[in-house]
Specification:
Elements (H helix, E strand, L loop, with lengths): L3 E2 L9 H10 L2 E2 L10 E7 L3 H19 L4 E7 L1 H9 L6 E3 L3 H9 L12 H4 L2 E3 L1 E6 L19 E2 L7 H16 L4 H13 L8 H9 L6 E5 H10 L4 E4 L3 E3 L1 E2 L2 E3 L1 H7 L2 H10 L3 H9 L3 E2 L2 H6 L8 E3 L1 H5 L2 H9 L4 H7 L2
Parallel strand pairs: 1-15, 3-4, 3-5, 8-9, 11-15
Antiparallel strand pairs: 2-4, 5-13, 6-12, 6-14, 7-9, 7-10
Helix pairs in contact: 2-12, 3-4, 6-7, 7-16
Length: 344
């Protein structure tokens, strides 16, 4: 796998109405959800809509060819952490495809996902990875090149809420880690992140909403989001935006898991496992790479090498002691983010 890693260490509605609303948001991408054929629900984060619109039909065709069974795959999207909480609260996901291990750990803690979920699939159950980069307006008028530029008083930065969005968490940690990478200390990292979040005019709950804020509402000088999201915007509206890569960013692995309690109750374990395994197949990895997600397959990574700019990626495990430690210190109620944002 070609990645360069640093060695640094819903309102107040009654619950039944909330769950009904969440379930209604699941988007059918293939077939009739009421058909007699098996139906899977993939609960995923919000910037993966276009990716799974390609993955799902390819998997359905492959599975039918191999087994003769016609599957339906439904989709639900939102901020990664918000989606995880929806599953924890009763949304009947067959599988989850999240953007941080912390969200799957939450489901494991609730007994919905195996405690050893990371061992169920290759690469720690992360079939692809990404990083966070910048999308700026044409000509980069504020000359934004690195994390310190996001802290300048005249720069407005669009970042989704780290309390609800894995995208927001990765951005926060990337900025914090960039200081440590340069030899700075925790106090200096806290200062930089504080200045950056003081420059955030709108804090959406997920990455796709943040993209809409920046591109359609024309708010902000820079959008910080996943590499595949900025490449999508750039390819569609290239005359209006440019992609900027900081010197250092964060390794954003996207973990997957079978929701054991749901698939076992509904007799869908074989189908759900096959769905996630398809993400590791040559066909699945090729689709992921075409959507600017960095593949774990060395062969596919080599095939698409020109599409992915080399960048130093900091690991949450080595820099922050893993997602559980990062969550407790930075994002739990009363953590570093709450303290920083309270002074905004």
């Amino acid at each position: 796998m070609s990645k360069k890693i640093s060695v640094l260490g819903a309102g107040k509605l009654p619950r039944r109405f909330f769950l009904a609303a969440v379930a209604a948001a699941a988007l059918p991408l293939a077939g009739n959800a009421w058909a007699a054929d098996p139906v899977l629900l993939n609960v995923s984060y919000d910037v993966m809509r276009e990716v799974f619109k390609d993955i799902n039909p390819a998997f359905i065709a492959d599975y039918k060819k191999k087994t003769g069974v016609t599957l339906t795959v439904n989709q639900s999207h939102g901020g990664s952490s918000k989606q995880a909480r929806s599953v924890a609260d009763g949304l009947k996901a067959s599988v989850v495809t999240m953007n941080q291990a912390n969200d799957v750990d939450l489901l494991a803690d609730r007994g919905l996902v195996a405690a050893d979920w990371k061992t169920k699939f290759p690469h720690g159950a992360a079939p692809f990875y990404s990083t966070v980069v910048y999308l700026v307006r044409k000509g980069n008028p504020k000359q934004i090149k690195d994390w310190t530029d996001l802290a300048k008083p005249d720069v407005k930065v669009v970042i989704p809420n780290p309390k609800t969005s894995g995208n927001g968490r990765y951005t926060y940690l990337a900025a914090w880690g960039s200081v440590l990478k340069k030899g700075g200390n925790e106090a200096q990292a806290r200062e930089l992140v504080g200045k950056i979040f003081k420059n955030v005019p709108v804090m959406d709950t997920g990455g796709r909403a943040a993209t809409t804020t920046f591109t359609q509402r024309q708010i902000g000088d820079v959008l910080v989001t996943f590499e595949n999201e900025v490449q999508l915007v750039s390819s569609e509206f290239g005359d209006n935006f440019e992609v900027v890569y900081p010197a250092v960013s964060i390794l954003a692995e996207s973990p997957v898991a079978v929701v054991d309690k749901v698939v076992d109750k509904r007799g869908l374990r074989k189908e759900a496992t096959a769905y996630l395994n398809f993400l590791y197949s040559d066909a699945g990895q090729d689709i992921l790479a075409k959507h600017h997600l960095r593949p774990t397959s060395e062969a596919v990574a080599k095939k698409y090498a020109a599409a992915f700019k080399p960048i130093t990626l900091l690991s949450v495990d080595t820099v922050f002691g893993g997602w559980r430690a990062a969550q407790k210190k930075h994002f739990d109620d009363g953590g570093e983010f709450d303290k920083i944002y309270a002074t905004k």
